[in-house]
Amino acid sequence: MTISNKQLKDMIAQEAAKIIAEKGIQQFGQAKFKAAENLNAMNYGCLPSNSDVEKKIVEYYQLFQADIDFDHIQSLRKIACDIMYMFNNYLIYLVGPVANGTASVSSAINFHIASEDESEIIQTLIENDLTHKPYDRKIKFNEKMIRRVNGIKTIYKNTDVELTVFNYKEIRHVPLSKIDNKPMKRIKINLLQEMINSV
Q: Does residue 176 sit in the same domain as residue 137?
């Protein structure tokens, strides 16, 4: 039986979603190449989009790990609430897998936070007895504008937390997701609380 390119992409997306969910691989590109390798489809040029893989991750959780992963995501969202309360004097958004409901066991909790002075954020972490280390990340604001933005990593309740720091002008522009190239889903604390309490 001949498999169409569309069917093959769907199979690779499904396998990549399984790899991300079970192995904790966070890089979609890495998971797609591994999935294609597992299916002996490396030479077909049929890798699915990141968006297709993300949809398959949600389907995978619903089919195979609904209770476990839902509880885990709820737990991560509650931890995210703690962090957002810690920075309640800042404009802060929850973003990434925890916001989208696709977090795996190895997912960090990702935030966008507005500040003109990173040292203020570091001071808040120190006051709460949290360690910190810097990182930087390329952020795509639109098709023509990609900027390298600084961030601060910490660990809270045995969970990796990443705070990407924007200035007050930048934070007004929603970055594009690496997954589907659409504006990222950003959640304020009030909505996050509603999501937690609605269960």
A: yes
Residues 71 and 60 in one domain: no
Find the CATH number of the domain harbouring 167: 3.30.460
SS3 5: helix
Domain ranges, residue 34: 5-64
pLDDT of residue 67: 53
Q: Residue 182 corresponds to which tokens in the numbers above? A: 């659409």
pLDDT at site 24: 64
- Write the burial class of residue 24 (CB in 10 Å: 0-12 exposed, 13-18 middle, 19+ buried): exposed
Name the residue among 57, 151, 39 with its Cα closest to residue 105. Answer: 57
Q: Which pLDDT score, from 0 to 100, does residue 41 have?
A: 78
List of residues 6+ apart from 194 with CB closer than 8 A: none
